Recover the amino acids of this structure.
């Protein structure tokens, strides 16, 4: 781990530091909407469709107890609801409420704006290259869709 010329850092440090940067921006946006970062993730995931609890746990990478607590808190805030699963009478599907859809859309737009602003110092070609490279890393590692590209999915 030697020094790099002109302030450049290696790929590991760059990815880790960029994760912290994006998480901080995401958390700041979430606070302004009175939600946690995890609730923001939940709302953004549910913008595309409703999910069963096990599916949702897999997408968000949460254990059952953590997911149950997250859904409980978000439901108490009136942002999500549990609906019977039409294919399994013992299961429920988690969906946005009308209020949740509104908060999700507003939060999503603001988070996208702020995250997009992180790259304003880059030329268009550099931004395209960064998007392409990070997109490959995400696809190669089969990262679940926890945040849609603007214009993808329902309500976006």
């Amino acid at each position: 781990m030697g020094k790099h010329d002109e302030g450049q850092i290696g790929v590991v440090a760059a990815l880790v530091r960029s994760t912290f940067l994006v998480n901080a921006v995401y958390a700041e946006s979430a606070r302004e909407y009175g939600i946690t970062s995890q609730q923001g993730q939940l709302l953004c995931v549910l913008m595309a469709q409703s999910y069963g609890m096990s599916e949702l746990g897999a997408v968000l990478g949460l254990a059952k107890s953590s997911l149950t607590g997250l859904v409980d808190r978000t439901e108490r805030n009136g942002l999500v609801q549990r609906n019977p699963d039409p294919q399994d009478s013992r299961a429920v599907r988690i969906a946005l409420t009308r209020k949740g859809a509104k908060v999700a859309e507003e939060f999503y737009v603001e988070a996208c704006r702020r995250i997009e602003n992180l790259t304003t110092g880059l030329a268009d070609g550099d931004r395209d290259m960064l998007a392409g490279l990070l997109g490959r890393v995400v696809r190669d590692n089969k990262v679940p869709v926890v945040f849609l590209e603007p214009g993808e999915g329902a309500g976006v």
